[in-house]
Structures are given as C-alpha cells and as structure tokens.
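Researcher: Next sequence.
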Amino acid sequence: MSTDTTRLDAATLASKIHAGELSSVEVTQAHLDRISEVDGEYNAFLHVASEQALAAAAEVDRAVAA
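Model: Next structure:
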C-alpha cells in the first residue's frame, strides 16, 4: 500500500477493512510496528499488549469474513 497505514483515519481504515483491502491484523501490526519504531524517543507507552491486540484484531477479521 502506498499510503502509510498508520496515517489513515479510523473511518478510512474501517472502510478498507470492510472492503477487504486491509485486514485488521495488518492494521494492528502496522501500529504496533510504529510504536516500536518511535516509542524510544517519546516514551508514550508504559505497556503495549501486542498479543492481546493482535488476538482482538484476528477476531475482527473473523467477524468481517462471516
């Protein structure tokens, strides 16, 4: 995808997930990757629940597919 997924607004992301252009897991992983890239500089997060976030995203993907 040419546009950075982490820069898209929530409505656009929802539309792309619903259309099958992106999966919720892909979007979640992109945001987790971005946190990993920049949090050393900003220290904005005390804890990032990556496994739980990805599990919730997978559940969204299952619901969208159903």
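Model: The chain is about 70% helix and 0% strand. Residues 25 and 35 are 15 Å apart (CA to CA).
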